[in-house]
Amino acid sequence: MTQSISVDERIARLSYGVRHVLKRSGAAVQVSGGIDSAVTLQLAARALGPDHVLPLFLPDRASASISAELAALAAEGAGCSLCTVPITELVLATTPPAEAAVIICRYVPSYDVEHDGYAINIDAEASLRLATPVFRLHVGPVQGQATTSVMLRPTDLRALMAIQNVKQRLRMIVAYRHAEAHGYAVIGASNADELDLGFTVKFGDDAADLYAIADLNKDDVRALAISLDIPKRIRDRPPTTDTFTLQQSQADYYYLGDPSALRSVDTHDPSDDHDSALSQIVSVYRQTAHYNSQRLRLDELDVD
Amino acid sequence: MADWNSVRAEILDTVFFNFTAEEVEDSSDLASDGYLDSLAILSIVAVIDDHLGGEAAQRVAQRSDFQSLAAVENLYHRLAGTA
Q: Is A150 exposed, middle or buried (0-12, 13-18, 19+ CB in 10 A)?
C-alpha cells in the first residue's frame, strides 16, 4: 500500500474540504456497486456523518442487476439511505437506441435493438501490433456475452462513443441536481489510474467538486477498502464499466488487463517491442487525460 | 481496384486535412512530426481496406507501416500484390 495520506487524515481533509473550502453542509456520492464509489461513500459518511451524505444510484437499462444490490450494500455499510434515480428515460430521450442501431447495423445487419446489446472493447492484439488503441464493436444478447466482433471505422467509433458518453453526463446532471437541492457538494470517485490514463468522460464521471481517492491507484483503493471494512462482495467484484448493454469489464474496455501493467510502463524496457507499443498506447491515454483535465481559455493559449 | 494515387488522395483528404500534401510527403516520422494521432492510423487502415476490399490492413499492418507516407504506400502495394 502506497497511500501517502492516512485514513484519518483523508477523512479530516474531506470534512475540511466540504465544510470549509466548498462551504457545503454535506455531500452527494454516485454509487455504482463498485469498490471506488463504496470507498468514497464510506469516507464521506465518516467525514460528514451519514445523515449528511446522499448516496445516489443512477441505473439505466445497461446496468447489471447485481449493481443495485451492491449499491444498497455500500449505502447500508455507510449508514446512509440510498437514493435510486433510474435514468433510463433520460437516456432514451437523449440518445434513442435507434441512433446507435443505425451505425451497428452497418457492421452487423442482424443487430436487433430489442434483444441485442453491444459494447466497445479494446483489441489487445491489434493495439499492441499498431501501438495505438484499437477498439472493436462487440454484439450479443443483452447483458450476455458477445457473439460477433468487428473493427469500427474511426468515424463510427467516435459516433458510438459520443452516444455512450451522454449517459455519464446525464448522471452528472442528476447528481448535481440532487446535491444542489440539499446544499451538498458532489464527491468524485475517480481513482488515480482513471484520471492518469484518461479513463473518464469529460464533464461526466470526472465532474465533481472534490475527489476523495484521486491520489490512489486501484491497488491502493483495494487496500483502503479493507481498512474501511467495505464488504467483501463489493471488493471482489471485477471492475465493470456498467455502460454498455453487453457484459464488460474495465480491462475489456480500456486497460488491456490490469491497470498496474499500464501504470508501470515507464519502467519497462524501451527496446522491447511489446513494452514500446504499450508505452505509446499509454502516451495516447495520457493525452486523453490531459484533454479531459484542460479548461482552455483563449487569453492563456500559447499561439505559435 | 483503385490505384495508389487515388488511395493517397483520399488519405490526404480525410486523414491529413489539417496539413499540406508537401508537409506530409516530406515527413520521415509522421508521429513525431505531429501529423499522426491514434485515430489517424485507424483511418488509414480503413481507407486501404475500403479500396482493396476485405480486412487485410486491419489484420497485418504494423506500426512501422505508418512511419511515413512512403511506408503507407509500401503497405498498400504489399497488400495489393503490386509491390
A: middle
Neighbours of A61 (CB within 10 A): 14
d(CA A252, CA A123): 8
Assembly ipTM? 0.89
Cell (9 digits) for A86: 433510474
CATH class for the region spanning A7-90+166-235: alpha beta
Q: Of the candidates A109, A114, A54, A56, which has an alpha carbon nearest to the alpha carbon of residue A79?
A: A54
For residue range A237-252, list pLDDT tens digits in order. 988 777 777 777 777 7
Domain boundaries, chain A: 7-90+166-235
Query: Residue B1's pLDDT is what?
Result: 60
**Residue A25 · residue A183 · CB < 8 Å:** yes
What domains are there in chain B, each with its CATH number? 4-80 (1.10.1200)
pTM listed for this prediction = 0.89
Long-range contact list for A257-266, CB < 8 A, 24+ apart? A257/A124, A258/A218, A259/A193, A259/A197, A259/A217, A259/A218, A260/A217, A260/A218, A260/A219, A262/A193, A262/A197, A263/A193, A263/A196, A263/A197, A263/A217
Which residues does A215 contact at the CB level (< 8 Å), separation at least 6? A3, A4, A5, A192
Strands A184-188, A210-211: pairing is parallel
A202, A292 Cβ separation under 8 angstroms: yes
Interface check B46 vs A, CB under 8 A: yes
Distance from CA of B24 to the nearest CA of A (A): 19
Q: Report the distance separating Cα A44 and Cα B53, nearest Å.
A: 56
A131: contact with B, CB 8 A cutoff: yes
Residues pairing with A140 in the sheet: A117
Neighbours of A291 (CB within 10 A): 11
DSSP secondary structure code for residue A239 in this structure: P
Burial of A89 (0-12, 13-18, 19+ CB in 10 A): exposed
- How far apart are the C-alpha atoms of A162 and A238, rounded to whole Å? 25
In a 3-state reduction of DSSP, which class is residue B17? Answer: coil
Is A215 in a helix, a strand, or coil? coil
Compare CB distances from A154 to B43, B55, B63 and report the shortest one's residue. Answer: B43
Partner-chain contact A130 B62, CB within 8 Å: yes
